[in-house]
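Box 3.1 — From sequence to structure: DUF2147 domain-containing protein
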Amino acid sequence: MHFRLIPLVFLALNLPAWAAADPLLGTWKTIDDKTGYSLADVIISKDKDNQYSAKIVSTRAIPGTAAQDICIKCTGVQKDMPMVGMTMLTGLSADPAHQHEYIGGKMLDPNSGLRYTARARLMNSGKHLLIHSRADGAAVGRNLTWVKY
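Predicted structure (token representation):
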């Protein structure tokens, strides 16, 4: 009888740890808003200041085109650097006013070399991340969707 209770006690003690897992952390498939194709996989991590960043871990080509492995259109130190290993999202932090929303990010579009401000919202029980990015001073922006693996 006591041996049957041990797994239940173990499960009950660890349930809060499972529930507290950060849903933003992990591997995401990026979906290009212009083509609808997945162009890269990224890993989102969190630093000691509780800010999130996303690093490219793999790239894919749009069907019928060659994969873009180098950031040709980037400027500064990222010009002509490999895309794999490049950080494309930085400074994103939890919005204290809205659960599952994140603000204050800076995003690099490696395909255009443009930089945007970014905010994000977890959707569909944490399976999708909707990112709204906007160039400084622009009236409209882009909506990107990332899908969690």
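Summary of the box: The chain has one domain: 22-148.
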